[in-house]
# Entry
Amino acid sequence: MEFSKDIYYLGQIPRKNSFEQGGFKDDKMLDDSAIAIKTKEGVVIIAGCSHSGICNICEYAKKVTGQKLYAVIGGFHLFENDQKAVKGTIEYFKAEKPKHLYPMHCVDFPILSILHSVFNIVKKSTGDSIKL
# Structure
């Protein structure tokens, strides 16, 4: 749903890839969603906890907006005990090459360390500003 010019509420996120399970403690969390903002540089995604999978969210945002990834901000739902999702997500972002990645929460420390090593992310938290 486009609720303001170029700003979309994505609604329920389709689960399309094989590496993100789209659940939390055996709950499929079908109500997971995100915001997609069209910009001159590409789509900016603001995710909640990403129980449906951050890559599933990105793919749906690209489909809805018709744009490439520019920035992904929010919870990525990536944890050390789910290496399939971690490896798939890293490969996905390597291929998509968004200019900005900001995993804000729902990411444990070992995975933040990997994301920093691979993508040189800067960890942001509540109260921080992000200028795109």
Helices lie at 54-65, 83-96, 109-119. The chain has a mean pLDDT of 92. The longest strand covers residues 69-74.
